[in-house]
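Problem statement: downstream parser choked on a complex file, so we are re-checking the raw output for the adenosine monophosphate run. The parser issue turned out to be on our end (a line-ending mismatch), but while we're here, posting the original submission so the record is complete.
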Amino acid sequence: MNDLLPGEIEVWQFVETTARTLFGRFGYGEVRTPMVEDTALFVRSVGEETDIVGKEMYTFEDKGGRSLSLRPEGTAPAARAYIEHSVSNVEPVSRWFYMGPMFRYERMKTGRYRQFSQIGAEAYGAKEPAQDAELMDVVVQFLEALGLTDVTLNINSLGDDACRPAYHAKLVEYLNAHREELCADCQQRLERNPLRVLDCKNEKCQAVAGAGPNVLEFLCEPCRTHFTDLQRKLGALGIRYVVNHRLVRGLDYYTRTVFEFIASHPALGTASTVGGGGRYDKMMKGLGGPDVPAVGFAMGLDRLVLLLKEGGKTFTAQPDLFIVAADVDAACQDAALALTSRLRREGFYVEFDTRGGSLKSQMKRADKSGARFSLVLGGDELRSGQAKLKPMAGGDLIPVALGSVAQTLRQAATQPSSPSSLKTQE
Ligand code: AMP
């Protein structure tokens, strides 16, 4: 679990702001659900046999003797809220997004934390492949807006209740025949949840799974049509993808479409999946809610942040102006403080060292702050009402009346190298 301090938080804020803007543009409204839910919610939706529920949940009993869990993911809590507020009675299609911390007792590795952040979106009420495609488009545009281009979309279909049993039976038969080649975990998975063997990172298991039955060959007609339509729509959107018949994802609730976005950057090591999702048409009903189809995804913010940091951009805001109080007398200090306050009210990011000190030391701090301009305020400036803006990157001093510093800064903002406080820099 990590602390995020100023200096590091800015890249997170950039990701979050980009997400809010972009998801809003697609008509997704933000939902915030509690950090804790009844443990039973995750057992019934994510599935008891999954690693998440079986091994990784932070589960505790509250003072009322109820079993609660810190949420390990966001889809089940959102579905619970959707059911609890009878949203399907109010609107036929709902589009929601969420972002916030999730908790899983994971083994510590790069890109794998016990408290991590996810951004996710869910679309309820549309069973059509166009909805799957739209959702993938959200992710594609989100990654584009972040400037992350080296990410591959993998898609697959897991079929539905009509066709999956035949595939399941064939898979079990095949895996049983190769039982000895599987890792100990997979031998157990084979008993409880054979699909999960396809997820195993062990090379031997991957080799066995790769040569096994192909789920796509078992799809019934409606599932096959759904999958072909989806691919046509992705084509229409100009979204590149790879069909990966071994993609199953680690949760139990998916039907038909599943997808993952995989980054190829070495910084992520084995944690190369930046996000994924799929269709879960049966989950609402399974949780005692209405029979409403749904499709959703979740992306890991921590991994997106790792990738952005590797990209070498800086996200920290830099002051537009650093005001230096030239004299230690009270009048000058007060005037500098008041001017700083006034300019902040005007919308500028202005710094002023509340400790005062010598002109030289304050100039040093101005330099270090990364401010675009500094302005020295002393007795002369106060008497004449005139001061000079000093571009910190070099260049001529700009004379300015103390009453119109804001105006001059605003003019400077329209120049090509504008104040950087709201921008990212290469
Ligand atoms: P999942 O809910 O397991 O499908 O995960 C969706 C995304 O959340 C993954 O692709 C990761 O980017 C991220 N994620 C999942 N677990 C962790 C973790 N323990 N630490 C950091 N990111 C995670």
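For whoever reads this later: Confidence is low (pLDDT under 50) at residues 417-426.
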